[in-house]
Specification:
This protein is α+β, with helices and mostly antiparallel strands. The protein folds into 3 domains: 209 residues, no CATH class; 69 residues; 75 residues, no CATH class. 40% of the residues lie in helices and 16% in strands. It contains 11 helices and 10 strands. The strands form 3 sheets. It has a 4-stranded antiparallel sheet, with helices on one face. A 4-stranded antiparallel sheet has the order 7-8-9-10, with helices on one face. Strands 1-2 form a two-stranded antiparallel sheet. A hairpin with a 5-residue loop joins strand 7 and strand 8.
Length: 394
């Protein structure tokens, strides 16, 4: 008999700003154990609970629903034959790299600096795989075949940076030796098709179990659905890669205001794999295209144009702050703005935003500094949303 699912604390996923700081809430260990037991028994209620528990509130992470369900599908696809509690181990290891969300306790800037760094690097995968095995051993009070349990956990731990690499936020795979960001830009942080197939593979065995109980047949294990979901994930990702290459080539083959592009980026959207957002940088401007539809003719004159400001003492002074150094180490397409302020008198407000995540009308991922008339930094801060909250960081 399936026991009721008891959700404890730490069940919400994603990153939200609260009281001016970033609050990152992730799936708790005991929650994963409880969900895994429930999901392993193909209970359809786990579909809704997983969605609510792991919803990602902004673009900072490949959503934890996808990570968690990928771990569960790996278990059902056959890895659960190798060790007890394979579902729990894989669901935990598929999320283990996000242990770096603890950096959010230091505020938005610290989260920006440390998220998707060392814990998401290739060298950290063996350690990220060990932690879930130890946690399951401690909480389940069950003997585990350590070697096989660790190998199973490795599969989940390796899936996390791989999935994070596919979206536009990127991941520092070679940290700590290199802080370079790697990103494929083929998936949105939340992809509707991936969610649909993974959730279908989660729920289908429950429906099959229900039908089998009515007709007296032996219920399936869900292995076929899990293999199908993982195969779809891989095939869909390859298709997205091909479409992304086509979108990049489309952007790169045009002139923009009689200027050739210096760089272009095609940013995925959640629903239609043929629709992308385009970002083009030329010598003097940024061009943003909200609807780059690969099924239609591309019109380079149809985007929003934002001029790149010339170098100025205000911008150079802001660059020297800790806030802007951390932001510029992360940002791939920074757009600067300098605006005068009434208070302090003769002061200036300097902003830099990452155009992958927003635009001047709707800024996101914004570093801000307030300078006085003598270009002294009064305060500086970083915010993910369009309502930045000051925090003294010089």
């Amino acid at each position: 008999m399936v026991q009721p699912l008891h959700l404890g604390i730490r069940v919400a996923g994603g990153t939200q700003r609260q009281n001016g700081k970033t609050s990152c809430r992730k799936v708790g260990v005991q929650t994963i154990l409880n969900i895994s037991e429930y999901a392993t028994n193909e209970n359809p209620k786990s579909l809704t609970l997983l969605s609510r528990a792991c919803y990602a509130g902004n673009s900072s992470c490949m959503d934890n629903v996808t990570h968690t369900l990928t771990g569960l599908m790996l278990s059902r696809a056959g890895l659960n034959r190798l060790t007890p509690h394979a579902a729990a181990i894989l669901m935990l290891s598929a999320n283990a790299a996000d242990i770096d969300v603890a950096s959010a306790l230091g505020g938005s800037l610290r989260f920006l600096e440390y998220h998707r760094g060392i814990t998401h690097s290739l060298i950290a995968i063996p350690l990220m795989a060990m932690l879930p095995v130890l946690l399951v051993w401690l909480l389940a009070h069950t003997r585990l075949p350590w070697r096989r349990a660790y190998l199973v956990s490795l599969a989940g731990a390796a899936s996390h940076p791989l999935l994070d690499w596919t979206n536009m936020y990127g991941v520092r795979l070679l940290s700590p030796w290199s802080e370079r960001w790697y990103r494929a830009d083929i998936h949105s942080v939340v992809d509707a098709w991936i969610w649909a197939v993974l959730l279908l593979a989660l729920a289908a065995p429950a429906l099959s179990r229900l039908v089998s109980s009515e007709i007296g047949a032996r219920p399936g294990t869900g292995r076929g659905w899990a293999v199908l979901a993982l195969c779809f994930f891989a095939t869909y990702s390859f298709g997205r890669y091909l479409l992304h290459s086509r979108a990049v080539a489309t952007l790169d083959a045009r002139l923009y205001g009689n200027e050739a592009p210096l760089r272009v980026a095609a940013i995925p959207t959640p629903f239609n794999p043929f629709r992308w957002a385009g970002l083009v940088e030329t010598e003097g401007f940024y061009f943003i295209y909200d609807d780059l539809n690969l099924l239609r003719e591309f019109d380079p004159s149809g985007g929003s144009v934002f001029p790149k400001p010339s170098a100025s003492p205000e911008i150079e002074r802001a660059r020297d702050t800790e806030t802007f150094r951390a932001f510029l180490a992360f940002s791939q397409y920074p757009l600067w703005r300098v605006t005068p302020l009434a208070v302090p008198e003769g002061g200036k407000r300097v902003e830099a935003m990452d155009l992958r995540f927003g635009s001047p009308p709707q800024p996101r991922f914004v570093a801000t500094a307030v300078l006085d008339h003598a270009l002294r930094v009064e305060r500086s801060w970083f915010a993910f949303g369009d309502l930045p909250v000051p925090g003294s960081r010089r």
